[in-house]
Amino acid sequence: MSTPDQNVDNVSLSGLVATLVPTAVIAAVYFLIFLVLRKTQRRFYAPRTYLGTLREEERTAPLPNGLLNWFRAFWKIPDIYALQHQSLDAYLFLRFLRMTVLIMFVGSCITWPILFPINITGGAGGEQLDKLSMSNVDKNASNGKYKYFAHCFAAWAFFGFVLFLVTRESIFYINLRQAFLLSPVYANRISARTVLFTSVPEPYLDQARLRKVFGDSVKNIWITADTTAVDELVEERDKVAYMLEAAEIKLIKLANAERLKALKNGAPNPEEELLETPLDAESGSIAARWLPQKKRPTHKLGKFGLVGKKVDTIDWCRSRLEALIPEVDAAQAAYLAGETEAVGGVFIEFARQSDAQAAFQTLSHHQALHMSPRYIGVNPNEVIWKSLAFPWWQKVIRRIVVIGFITAMIIFWAIPVAFVGLVSNITYLKSYSWLQWLDDIPTVIMGVISGLLPSVLLAILMSLVPVVMRICGKLAGEPSTSRVELFTQNAYFMFQVIQVFLVVTLAASASALIKQLQNDPGSITSLLAERIPTASNFYISYFIVQGLTVAASVLSQVVGFVIFTLIYKFLANTPRKMYTKWSGLSAISWGSTLPVFTNIAVIGIVYSCIAPLVLGFATIGMSLFYLAFRYNILFVTDSQIDTKGLIYPRALQQLLTGVYLAEISLIGLFSIATTIGPLILMVILLVFTVLFHFSLNQALGPLLYNLPKSLEAEEEFLRGSIEAANPASADREKRGDITEGSAAQKEPNFISKFLKPHIYSDYATLRRLVPHGLLDPDNLYEETVANNAYHPPSVTSPTPLLWIPRDQSGISRQEISHTAKVIPITDEGCMLDEKNKLSWDSEGARPPLWSPKIYY
């Protein structure tokens, strides 16, 4: 291979140091902030240990409150705890992070002892970090071509391990998901027994006809209809209701402030006994004693409240609600009576889960794209109701347009991303006369520019993409938020691979090639073989930034803590807003989070045999991410979107993208170096990978998404056997008092367990990890909840309960007596303190607005 231009200073090591030092400092500061705040800010750093909105079985046992003594207890909590107390997605996300750490670590163990000595002694004259990469192997040196066999054999070993691990994890996922879906708590949920049919033709939008198609196993049918009218009425009703609530609170606080001011100045307090008197005993307005009429809450009726007639807000809202509430009730009744136009979405609940699975796996209509696609396990809270109205032909058009838009976005997004790649190798551009001023920049600053700056810019650029992808998913007609997350996962991963890997790699290589190609165009092949491996220096910096700064910020959540504190203190000015902000837990967005780590693993796999040093930094970075997300999932976040684990097989399949790209890259590099032996071996490996991947999908593909009929019988058999043989074990299983290590009756050694997932991770074993009795499966729902489960939310939306604070002077009690004639209202659970501030029981967190979580 050709020798680098001697006029170009290689600053790969200084760039590494310039990236590592500031990111390490920032990470240390973040971690220190976390250690300090964790002790006192329990709501933000350990809400899952005590919040009253969580059921007892959903909570995590609190950790010791010391500065560092909590880590041992934290480490002892098994990952399976996330499955038993949160969701299948949360557990599989942690498992994926742990698996990528294993891949990167094993890759380091395979490649470093073999390839580092080969690369260092390659004879191409590389310096600093470049000596450790494949670019330092000179094919013209003594035995140079034979050295490439080392890279080839390392690739066979490492890529073979990745293929095995993907297969192993696919088997594990299939058995675990089947065990989860067949557990009594889930199998009896209404979503497990309900199938959503989309694009249903008009003749079949009839309950009698649908029952004839699907037989006696049908329990309930919900035919979705146009909700435009009821949506608008409910939206206006709620808007006016919350306006009334805010006005009532403003009136009470203004009057109470005037009262406190008067009492401070020595005025008598005639309201001391008011809290003990009946609501209607006080004649006249108590608020008027302290607050003149002109200071009561008012607003203008024109647009944006800036123009029009000025009215008393409380009186106007009461009057408007008197008319609106009956209108809403009438519109809801009309929908339930079937008086609105039906659209193409139908939810069918079956008596048993097996009946629902049979309907889901059966072709339902004789015409293409009718009553299809079908979905099972859709949570009513996740349904995107507007998408159900799209006819089949519109979905086809929408998907084509969305794919075209994403393709165009990828092409044009490559421009700023390519600029980032150029900056990462800016030192190679010094040879241009108009860029010779770069020589005047100190090496340290140049290291920051070429190392830290591109990594930060790339992270900022990519953070904007998931928002657009989710919008695209909804526009494409995805019927639920979980399907939108899966759409985002696929689209964002494709975006990550193309932009973060391909574009950056090519742009970083191009910056080093342009000038040399102008001088010697015939050297393109040797230059590519030399420069593409050196592009790995950028990814070392990228992994440092991701692994240290980003992982530390994920753990410390400094920005989130500041925003939460400011919003709660200054903007949560009503009891409702305070409760909503206090009780709402943050959630991890699987569709935008998982592709980032999948792509990091892909990059590590691709560069594993080209620049093995990348694997070491990837191992450290993914380990830090694993620990940060492990803490958040166990103690901080909640799962708002549940894909029932479907994020995992997609991520596993996407990992194989790294294997394909790595094999193609090595074939290209071996071709450039004209090393026939390694080239033939890599082509054989590529063909083997394709055949293996195809066979894997053929064998396991149907099991990834469907439940086999045989498992229901096996589940009943296993349940009966356990209860008959060991009642104590059955009780522990119902409580979910099982750890990952105790899943098998007899714990095998690690190697046997790892190499034989079909034995030690089979259905019978993994079902013991799934809690079976945290809820009563026979009494999950009240009758009205079950009957209304799959009606649009506006159709079953009740009139809001207004929540105002109680005051010492009795104004709230009088306002309740007047407003309750129109709309429900209460002042229980919140009071104005001596400073006129809202005060409520945040520890219990079960005020009048609280309602038990429904497990659909």
TrEMBL record:
The chain crosses the membrane at residues 12-37, 96-115, 148-167, 400-424, 444-469, 490-514, 539-567, 587-607, 613-634. Residues 398-670 form the CSC1/OSCA1-like 7TM region domain. Keywords: Membrane, Transmembrane, Transmembrane helix, Transport. GO terms for molecular function: calcium-activated cation channel activity. It is found in: Membrane. The keyword Translocase does not apply. Coiled coil: none annotated. It comes from the Eukaryota. InterPro entries: Csc1-like (IPR045122), CSC1/OSCA1-like_7TM (IPR003864), CSC1/OSCA1-like_cyt (IPR027815), CSC1/OSCA1-like_N (IPR032880), PHM7_ext (IPR022257). Residues 192-386 form the CSC1/OSCA1-like cytosolic domain. It is a multi-pass membrane protein. Residues 754-848 form the 10TM putative phosphate transporter extracellular tail domain. One of its GO terms (cellular component) is plasma membrane. Signal peptide: none annotated. Belongs to the CSC1 (TC 1.A.17) family. PANTHER family: DOMAIN PROTEIN, PUTATIVE (AFU_ORTHOLOGUE AFUA_5G10920)-RELATED, PROBABLE MEMBRANE PROTEIN DUF221-RELATED. This is DUF221 domain-containing protein. It comes from Marssonina brunnea f. sp. multigermtubi (strain MB_m1) (Marssonina leaf spot fungus). The lineage of its organism: Eukaryota, Fungi, Dikarya, Ascomycota, Pezizomycotina.
